[in-house]
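Note to self: user wants both folds in one dump. Writing first protein now.
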Amino acid sequence: MFEVKNKNGRARRGVFSCAHGGEVQTPVFMNVGTQAAIKGGVSAHDLQEVNCQIELSNTYHLHLRPTDKVVREMGGLHKFMNWQGPILTDSGGFQVFSLSALRKIKEEGVYFASHLDGHKIFMGPEESMQIQSNLGSDIAMAFDECVENPSTHDYVKQSCERTYRWLERCITEHKRLNSLPDTVNPKQMLFGINQGGVYADLRVWHMKQIRDLDCDGFAIGGLAVGESADVMYEIIDAVEPHMPEDKPRYLMGVGTPTNIIEAVYRGVDFFDCVMPSRNGRHGKLFTWEGVVNIINQRYATDPRPVSPSCGCPLCKNYSRSYIRHLFKADEVLALRLAVLHNLYFYNDLMEKIREAIAENRYEDFRAIYSEKLAQRAVD
């Protein structure tokens, strides 16, 4: 399922395989299609063009609309969105966390109100596994509690203990669902999630608790929710030595190109974030030369591509002047081209990271690009 091929310090280049899509090269960025579509008018076919390896969809949102039962009836998420590569579905835990004013957490699970129409919903470990089984994703995420930051040490410890109990229930239900004769994807995998807020002692304790459970991979959750980047890196440094060497490591909801470079340096394999598509829709484009805010007046008559080193559909075909015009004219094409550009860049970034690790030069790569990619591009 997962094999580490090269190591350069703690950075790892590996190969991951699952029921759909053959081999995935890691480190990998998973392109986020929250509701079975990338925001910005990007289709599953487009994902192939920008070299996406894994698509990620949202359990909570698909449960509400069109409902996981409809997706199951349509043959599962792969057929529904016409994407034949691997799919990861999150558990819904983070979305429940974001509905803090509408939810109540109990041992059996979480009671909350739909953000769409306010109707009452219950989701626990078993329900999350059932929804994800109906979706038929390749990787299901365990149902967990993502705590607010800051929270007290005592509350976070209680939350970690509850998340551990929930993970045990997820494993039991996941195995049952995979054994059923009519399961959409009987080879669906399950990743456990490490929690513990910004408390390194709780993070390590919780990782030691869950690492021996029967999971196919492990994620670090509950970060990138308001803490500084330095705190996030400190937590990864604390947790990583206690994560299994032979299983994928996933940093959830992260992040900027710099975040990714720094987390790979610390031993992380999987990433996801809405940033490339969200920033693209606002005209903020990532390039190897730095960040380009394409809406700026300076690009009004600029005939050059956004990035001369980029092979995306935008940079191969259009000028900075044209894409700026599309944004200023509120043309939908602006969003589509900008999102395609950013997704292409993120996937290209991961390819360059893998090459640097394989060639034993990741330290040099990090030294050149970790800060540069966060800076404004200089013409």
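First done. Writing the second protein, which came from a different request thread.
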Amino acid sequence: MSGTWRSLTSDELTGGTNHETAPFGTFAPNYLQRILIGIGKKTILKRGLFRGKYTQIILALSKGPLDIFFRDCAYRIWGENNLIEYGLLLNPDYNRADLDFLLTDASPDANFIDLGSNIGLYSQPMAKTAPIGKTISIDANPLMAKRLAFNANATGLNNLKIVSAAVSDADGQGSLIIRKDDVAIVAVEETSGGEIPIRTLGAILNEQKIKTIYGLKIDIEGHEDKALAPFLMNAPKAQLPKKIVIEHPEPDSDYPECTKVFAKLSYVLVGRSRNNSFYELMP
């Protein structure tokens, strides 16, 4: 992990102003906000360099968050420093290649895993694509888990199961740290006195009775080798994900232990986006 990290504040763990009780739609964009959102979606303002400040301008035109739809799923945008919110609000093609790779050819009963789920950029489309299967959404920040639960309820998803925990190679406790003050860039430090539970992925999946996995997405800020590699090496063959989207630490390389395990288990790199690599399990 590079850059300056700090501990999360209580608001970043539990939330500040409480709007969760207001029904979805309460904070629908007003007329002027809809115009600005439309402009953003069609211009350079939807790009990462501009999205954050432009989102703040839009949110300043009303009180409270914004209730929006992305890929036919409901999201409450809180207007905090969260790069995922900016993309959901302003870019209709946000992470399209990543999502399309994971969801293509998925059957209605497919199971998905979203490791580092935040407010559900991946989790909700996964669960909506496979309504008879299960989508397991895992996030170490309890605030993100709470907000994802609200979004999933607003979308009407009853097959999305949320686990509020960090994931590593052994059970334990940890603390959360944040970079760039962005709640989408949160990592776990394994410390015995930490307040965040740490679980193994295998234990979570067994608890949720997941025997097969169609697609798995993982973005946990440098903990990928400890969370995913041991699971893949010890999982039954039937439980190996058919598709994996994993954050890459460098544009042309992946986490070293995961890379070794992918090769050993016959995963093939089939593509990369700006932030992630796409792997598919060969027969």
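Dump finished. Worth passing along: The chain is about 35% helix and 25% strand.
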